[in-house]
Design goal:
The chain is 77% helix and 0% strand. The protein has 16 helices and no strands. By secondary structure, it is mainly alpha-helical. The termini are far apart. The protein has two domains: 194 residues, no CATH class; 190 residues.
């Protein structure tokens, strides 16, 4: 994250920065850049499916946390740097290449490819941030100090990343890398405080809220698209039977409903709030940098559950299927609900999402104790999402109030 830029400096110096006075569009290069992360999310879901253990799940969580930070910090950088300028374009392409390498070795990051994974990740975070120090220094002088603080934080965590890759493996490497991520996730809350360099302030993080909101919404599309790819790829390799078709429709319906729950009102309200907030940096940090993580993690969990359902639609729902379906959807509703709460003037968690959380908890408990046919279990999960979507639709569009008033008049 970086500070906003002022009106000081020559036009030549400012040429690597976007004009923040008007609408900041999402560039085609940013959309191209995102394609790498479709592959990265697919790698994470495959890692979970192949290991299917607590250790594999923990390793996938570390990998996702790194992938998310690489993406979101690059999005912050692209909020200021102009992707149409050649140096910025080269920087984004280099980050894209390093991200692709990181995604390729991701399934073996806790085995023999740990050093490649760590070096790729460190190159992304440190290299991009130092580039932004240069951009900000040439354009604003003193405002580059904020980017320098961030670079030093990343350099500190880089030591832990590389040490973990060189000195440990498996669970031991997990704890090293968890410590590295703790440093990086604590940075924005600590305002990147450093001795002699001071700390940043939220008022310094003047950004284009609409651009960041749109970029995060596009990442949600990426995550949902990864689920569609998994669903379509699995179904394409199966016989076209009624059972397989039913499982396919259940998986597809779940993806559609997750899209609906986020994009019907949440994305627009979030964009409006950050665009008009007095401290857009605070909203960007809380609502987008952090609260979108459980949303994407929930989508990944749902994609894993869909692949398990499609693989064995004629079996009873396994405990793994129950855990990933209910756990993934609960995580998704919790994240979206918190995001909508932060985007609302009423600051209340949506009642529809709270009901969905309760129903998924009940469904998980029942299916854990009483084996249910997989298709029935999957249908019940979709029914919960449908209830949430319909409930929110009518509550926000006045449908319940109008129907209740008409019923009262008839009575």
């Amino acid at each position: 994250m970086s500070e906003g830029h002022g009106a000081q400096g020559s036009s030549k110096n400012r040429s690597l920065l976007r004009d923040q006075n008007g609408h900041v569009p999402v560039s085609y290069l940013e959309l191209f850049f995102d394609l790498v992360f479709v592959f990265a999310l697919t790698q994470i879901s495959h890692l979970i499916l192949e290991t299917m253990s607590w250790q594999g799940l923990a390793e996938a969580a570390i990998a996702f946390s790194a992938v998310w930070l690489a993406w979101i910090y690059t999005t912050w950088a692209a909020n200021w740097a102009e992707p149409e300028r050649l140096p910025v374009r080269i920087m984004l392409i280099c980050v894209m290449l390093a991200s692709l390498i990181m995604a390729v070795v991701l399934p073996h990051a806790f085995e023999d490819k740990g050093l490649i994974f760590a070096l790729s990740y460190v190159a992304i975070q440190v290299g991009r941030t130092l580039f932004m120090v240069y951009v900000m220094y040439r354009s604003e002088g003193g405002n580059a100090r904020n980017m320098l603080r961030i670079a030093i934080w990343f350099m500190t965590s880089a030591v832990v990343w590389i040490a973990g890759a060189l000195l440990a493996e498996g669970w031991d490497r997990f704890w090293w890398w968890l410590a590295a991520l703790a440093i990086e996730y604590a940075g924005p809350f600590a305002l990147f405080r450093l001795p002699f360099l001071g700390r940043s302030t939220l008022d310094d993080w003047s950004i284009s809220g609409h651009h960041l909101a749109e970029r995060c919404a596009l990442f949600i599309i990426i995550a949902l698209g990864e689920g569609i790819v998994v669903t379509g790829g699995t179904f394409a390799g199966q016989a076209f039977t009624a059972t397989n078709l039913t499982a396919f429709l259940i998986a597809f319906s779940g993806s559609v409903l997750m899209w609906w729950i986020y994009f019907d009102t949440g994305a627009r309200r979030g964009s409006d709030r950050i665009e008009h907030h007095s401290q857009p940096g605070r909203v960007a940090r809380d609502a987008y940098t952090y609260l979108h993580m459980p949303i994407v993690m929930g989508i990944i969990g749902g994609a894993v559950a869909d692949e398990m359902l499609l693989a064995h639609p004629d079996h009873h729902a396994s405990r793994a299927l129950v855990a990933f379906t209910c756990g993934g959807m609960a995580l998704y509703l919790l994240g979206v609900g918190q995001f909508k709460k932060g985007s609302s003037t009423h600051l209340r968690f949506p009642l529809s999402h709270l009901a969905g959380l309760s129903l998924f908890g009940w469904l998980a408990t029942y299916a854990w104790l009483v084996p249910l046919p997989a298709l029935l279990f999957g249908s019940l999960g979709v029914a919960v999402l449908l209830l949430v979507a319909v409930w929110e639709w009518f509550s926000l569009h006045g449908g319940w109030q109008e129907r209740l008033e008409r019923w009262r008049k008839k009575a």
